[in-house]
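Below is one record:
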Amino acid sequence: MNPFFIYYCERSGLPGLFAEPLNFVSNLAFIIAAILIWRMLARTPVLSVRMHWDIFLLTAIIFIIGMGSASWHSYPMAITHLLDVIPILVFILGYIAIFMIRVVRLSWGGALAVVILFICLSFGAPQFLSTKPLGGSGAYVPALSAMVLTSLAMFMLKNPHTWKMCLACALFSVSLSLRSVDITLCGVLPIGTHFIWHMLNASVLFTLMRLLTDAASLEKKAER
């Protein structure tokens, strides 16, 4: 039996293209989030593709995240697993870099140094974080930790966008908790909780992108 078939509670060892209907369909949340962000960008005249290509690129990656995750939950195998995790990793690292440039006002070199530091600290996290205690969700703990620390720093500096980062942090905490307990709830909740992780995470990404677009918009207006 393909070991990927029992990776999530909803699949429960069953093969087939639509063995995870909720986990599959809930990826529409990422597609919808990407479309809403794109429309938001289009309605903001001070933001252009030429000058803010990085924000537009992150929006496209959110769309790809939805497609990659849908492929993984429709037919779990090694290649679709990569299609699922790689866009997520690219978004995390890309967002850190762009946040450091657009909000913290670091140079590209400084932003790259922060990304490298995040990667090093992530690989240095205790091994148990990716195993049983968090239901295989430990790989996302460094991202949550970074969001918590960023929220605190923004609050202390009285950044006007603090509430958006705090909201994203709260949503991500709930979604990560639900992802962590998915496989343990199979006996009482056969559909699992992973599909809620998808929907909440789409909200997290939308909130984070709203923070970036608002920061970039204020920056352009201040230049005028």
Q: What stands out?
A: Residues 18-219 form one domain. Residues 194-223 form the longest helix (30 residues).
